[in-house]
Amino acid sequence: MRAWRAGLALALLTALAACGGAAPAPRTAGMSELGIFEPGVPESYGPVADFTAASGVQPNLDVYYSGWYQPFDAAFAAAAARHRAVTVDQINPAGIDLAAIAAGTYDGYLRTYADAVRSYGHQVILSFGHEMNASWYPWGLAHTSPATFVAAWRHIVTLFRTAGVRNVTWLWTVNVTGSRQAAPIAPWWPGASYVTWVGLDGYFYRPSQTFHTLFGPTIAAARTLTSDPVLIAETGATPAAGKPAKIASLFAGVHAYGLLGFVWFDADTEQDWRVSDDPAAAAALRAGTATYMKAAPGLARQFR
């Protein structure tokens, strides 16, 4: 056990090199955001509490995914706030014509959602149609044109602002590029006045992948569009990739590139991404949190 702990410490000390390539100097003194997605939310806050009990880490971003017509879950958001966390809702418009969203067809639903967020009154992070530059979702590449997506995004943001909603951080979330299934991100960009944070989704499948090779090119592309803060909005590592090493790489890479932080997808889906069932990965998460997290997390949150 002592030798394993020494190995973990060495992994954290050398993880900057493991990022694999030069990174710009960090723009912040430390990462401010550490998020989690757990199956079973937002119906219950219990899965997040179970994660904290198993891992020893308290996230300050609690993520859930909602379908179109699903209302804002103020009860879950309030539970997250009691644990000093902010709710992130990834709104997925499956089966919905994005051109109809832009044309105002669904304004009734959107106004109801906006009113609920405004009434809640505390910080909320909203994303819409995540990974739209990739081909696997019906609202994205090969199913919807970038112009239509941009029009829908702008319509939603404008409607919220017109409704007087001022407690939203708008998270524009793309998939990392570098595969034939993910297109360049620039055509999907709604414009600086419609986005608060940029989110990047990417996963480690192989030991050879580094933070730089996975995220670096898309970070560079995003920074040609905006100086907005960047969050790794969804990530994980397969058992074959080596979860403890990749978690150390995430913390070091976020620090090296001056990003906000990352959200871990703690679920067993087509791969077992879970940290909560992996003691070595949980230890790496605790070590990275102690090394890299700011003393006062959440200071970088912005609203527009």
Q: What do you see in this structure?
A:
- The chain is of the alpha/beta class.
- It has one domain (2-292): Glycosidases (TIM Barrel, Alpha-Beta Barrel).
- 38% of the residues lie in helices and 16% in strands.
- The chain is built from nine helices and eight strands.
- The chain has an eight-stranded parallel beta barrel.
- α7 links the parallel β6 and β7.
List the helices and strands and how they pair.
Blueprint: H1 2-18, E1 33-37, H2 46-55, E2 61-67, H3 74-82, E3 86-92, H4 98-103, H5 107-120, E4 124-128, H6 146-162, E5 168-175, E6 197-201, H7 211-225, E7 230-235, H8 243-257, E8 261-265, H9 279-292
Parallel strand pairs: 1-2, 1-8, 2-3, 3-4, 4-5, 5-6, 6-7, 7-8
Helix pairs in contact: 1-8, 8-9
Brief summary of the model shown:
The chain is α/β, with parallel strands linked by helices and 304 residues long. Helix content is 38%, strand content 16%.
Radius of gyration, CA atoms, in whole angstroms: 19 Å
What is the CATH superfamily? Glycosidases
The CATH top-level class label: Alpha Beta
Mean pLDDT: 90
Number of structurally distinct domains: 1
| Lateral strand order in the biggest sheet | 1-2-3-4-5-6-7-8
Using the 3D structure, state the CATH architecture: Alpha-Beta Barrel
What is the strand tally?
Answer: 8
How is the CATH topology named?
TIM Barrel
Measure the end-to-end span: 48 Å
User: Could you tell me the strand content as a percent range?
Assistant: 15-25%
